[in-house]
Amino acid sequence: MVEEMTLDELKQVTIDYYVNLQRIKKADTGNNPELEYQLKVYKNKLASLGIPPEEYEM
Fold it and tell me: How far apart are alpha carbons 25 and 3 in whole angstroms?
């Protein structure tokens, strides 16, 4: 049986992932192009879900 995520669950998972990326960025002292790319991708995903990403930036 396959269960689909509700919109609220999808939003929460996306927020959690973005916040985790923010934590990694804060701890990472070097230049990490992949991390920066992932942050851009998830920032756009949050915006597309109607969630302002600025509220979750460190």
Answer: 33
